[in-house]
Amino acid sequence: MKKVIEEISEVVAEAFERAGYDAGFARVTVSNRPDLCEYQCNGAMAAKKQYKKAPIQIAGDVVAYLQDSELIEKAEAVMPGFINITLNRKSLAEYVQKMAEDQELSVEKTADPETIVIDYGGPNVAKPLHVGHLRSAIIGESIRRMGRRLGHHMIGDVHLGDWGLQMGLIITELQERKPELPYFDDSYTGEYPEEAPFTISELEEIYPTASKKSKEDDAYKNKALQATAELQSGRRGYRALWRHIISVSVTDLKKNYEKLDVHFDLWKGESDAQAYIPDMVQMMKDKGYAYEDQGALIVDVREEKDQKEVPPCMILKSDGAALYTTTDLATIVERMQDFDPDEILYVVDKRQEMHFIQTFRCARKTGLVKPETKLTFLGFGTMNGKDGKPFKTREGGVMRLETLIADIDREMFRKIVENKSVKDKDAEETAKIVGLSAIKYGDLSNQASKDYVFDVDRFTSFEGNTGPYILYTIVRIKSILNKFKAEGGSLEDAKILNAASDIEKKLMLQLSRYNEALTGAFEEKAPHRLCAYIYELSNNFNSFYHETRILTEENEGQKKSWLLLLKTVQRVLEDAIDVLGFSAPEEM
Ligand code: ARG
Which residue from 116, 210, 288, 444 could staple onto 527, CB 3.0 to 4.6 Å apart? Predict the structure, then answer.
C-alpha cells in the first residue's frame, strides 16, 4: 500500500503545479506541531527566492488548490509560509480499513531487493559471552529481521573470533595439564578421538587461567605464540584440538543465542578467511598497493580530506603474521565471491571505528569490492551500569550474558507473581518472554551509537518506555478481543468507521504510519525509530481505551469498528516486536 505521506505529497505536488510553482518544492513531512496539524509542507519558504514572492502568498496560492482534495480535511497557509494539513477522517478510516484487510499491514516489499551480508554477534570462541557482545547480537538481529520483512536478501554471519592468540593459549594450557594427549605427540599418525578432552566449563576456566599466566610469565607467553603460529601453519594435532575447541564452544554459543532469540544464517569465523589471504596479499603487492615499511607490509589509506590521522593499513607484520585487518579484508574477498552482496554491514562496538575506516578504504583502493558495493559500519555505544561505567557484576567482574538474563528473568518473575495475573505454572515461562523484551527493548530504544545505562528496575517496569509496557498493551487488547469472542462476537462484518473522537483519530493516524516507520527505521538502520513508533502507538491506544467504553457500546457497527481498530493495532504491534526480535505472551 502506498504510504499516507506519499498520497498527500502527490496531492500537494499537484497543487503546487496548478498554482504555477515547481512541484519539486512540495515536500511534505509529518507535522512537528501535532497540536496544530498532522502534516506540513514548508516548500513555500524554499520557493521564495525563485519566484521573488512572499512565502505566505505562495502558500496561499497552493492551499487554494488543496481545498477540494478528498484526502484533506483542512489545508491552511500560516505565517510566514507554512502549509498546515489535516487529514480527512473518511479517507483515514478507509486507509485503516485497507490495512486491516492486508496481510502485510500496508508494508510493501521493496521493488529492488538487495543482498546484504550482516556481520554481527562476533563472539570469541572459548571465551564466555559477556554483555559486550549483547548489543551486537540484539541490534544486528533486529536489522536482519527488518530487512527481511521488507524483502531484502539478508545474510547474517556470526563471524566467530576463532583464529587468534586465545587458541594458542588454550593449547598451551592443555599441554601443561595433559601432556599425554595424542594431540601433542608429533609421531602420532592415527585418528584423533572424536570426543573433546574437555567440557565447556573446563574450557571457560582454561582460557582465563592461561591468559593470566601469559601476562605474568614471558616463557609461557612465547609458548602460546609459538602454538598459535604452529596451529596457523597447519600442525595436525593442534588443528584437531582446535576443532574440538570450536565445536564445544559453538554448541554453547548456539544455546545462548537461542535464548536471546538471535539467529545466524552463517556460522563462519575468522579462520575461514585465512585461505584467501595469500592471493589477496600477492595481488596487493603486484598491483603496487602494498609496500614494505620496516619489514611490515602496508597499504596507505590516508585521504586529503581527513580531519584526524588515519594510519596505514598493516597487512602483514614483520614476522609475516596476518592481523585482524588482514582477516577482515580476506573475509570481504570471501563474501564477494560467495554472495556478491550490494552491501556488507558490520554491527560492532564503535571503539573499533578506526579499524573499519582503514579496512573499508583498503578494500576499495585495492579493488576487493565493486565501486557500488556499500561497506557500512554501524558502531554502537557502551552498555553502562547505573554508575555510568561499563556494566559489571556486583563484584566488579565482567558480567556474563547468562547471568544478566537470569537476573532479569528473576526480577520479571517476581513482578508477575506479585501481579497475580498469570497462573503460577506459567509464570516462569512468561517471565522469560517478558524479560527478553525488557533487555532487547531497553537496548534498541536507544540510538545505537549512544552509550546507555542498563537499568534493571526501569527496563522491567510495566510503565513508561519499556518492552514490558508494549507487551502489556498487546495483552490488554488480546483480552478485550477474547472477551468479545467469548460472548459469541465476530468481526467478520466489521467495518472501520470515521474516527468518533480526536483521540481515536490520533490513534488511527499513528496506525496508518506503520509502513513509513518500518521503512524509515530500516533505511537509517535505526531500530530505535521503530521503538519510538510503537511506544507512541501504545500510548495512543491506552489513551483511547481509557476514554472509550468499547464492549458496552450499544451501536453494534461502532463497537465492531473499534474492535477491528484494536485488532489492527495489536497486529501492528506484534509485527513490529517480531521485527525487533521479541514476542508477547498470552497473559501477563
Ligand atoms: N570478535 C570481535 C570482538 O570480540 C568482533 C568481530 C567483529 N566483526 C568483524 N568483522 N571484525 O571484538
Answer: 444
Evaluate whether 295 touches 318 at the Cβ level (below 8 Å).
yes
Torsion, Cα 398 402 408 414, to 10 degrees, reads: -130
Strands 39-41 and 82-87: antiparallel
User: Whole-model pTM above 0.70?
Assistant: yes
Is 127 inside any structural domain?
yes
320: left (phi over 0), alpha (psi -120 to 50) or beta: left
The whole-angstrom separation of Cα 519 and Cα 530 is 9
- Give dist(CA 71, CA 85) in Å, integer: 10
Contact 346 CB / ligand 1 (< 6 Å): yes
Q: How far apart are CA 230 and CA 304, in angstroms?
A: 41
Probe target for ligand 1 pocket from 119, 130, 350, with the most ligand atoms within 8 Å of CB: 119
- Pocket flag, ligand 1, residue 157 (CB < 6 Å): no
β-pairing verdict for 153-157 and 115-119:
parallel
Per-residue pLDDT reduced to its tens digit, 312-337:
999 999 988 889 999 999 999 999 99
- As a whole number of angstroms, the distance between CA 410 and CA 145 comes to 28
User: To 10 degrees, what angle do helices 556-580 and 424-444 make?
Assistant: 70
Same domain, 277 and 330: yes
The reply to whether 414 and 560 lie within a common domain is yes
Per the DSSP assignment, residues forming a β-bridge with 353 are none
Q: Do 569 and 537 contact (CB within 8 A), yes or no? A: yes
Query: Phi, psi at residue 67, to the nearest 5°?
Result: -65, -35
- How many CB atoms neighbour CB 464 within 10 A? 10
Task: Tell me if 418 is assigned to some domain.
Answer: yes
Q: Whose CA is nearest to atom 8 of ligand 1?
A: 122
pLDDT tens per residue, range 40-51? 999 999 999 999
Residue 536, domain member (yes or no) = yes
What cell numbers appear for 64 in the block? 487554494
Q: Which domain holds residue 33?
A: 4-87
Among the candidates 259, 277, 310, a domain finishes at: 259
pLDDT band at 396 (very low <50, low <70, confident <90, very high): confident
Q: How many alpha carbons fall within 13 Å on the CB side of residue 403?
A: 13
Same domain, 434 and 561: yes
Residue nearest to atom 12 of ligand 1 (CA): 122
Is pLDDT of 398 > 80? no
Look-up: residue for cell 496508518?
512
417 and 556 part of one domain:
yes
Phi, psi angle pair for 87, to nearest 5°: -75, 150
Domain limit, last residue, from 233, 259, 285: 259
Q: Count up the domains in the chain and report the number.
A: 4
In a domain, 104, yes or no: no
Average pLDDT over residues 344-367: 97
Q: Flag the least confident range among 101-110, 373-382, 424-433, 557-566.
A: 424-433
| Residue 557 alpha carbon to ligand 1 centre in Å | 57
Mean pLDDT of 381-401: 83
Do 186 and 227 sit in the same domain of this protein?
yes
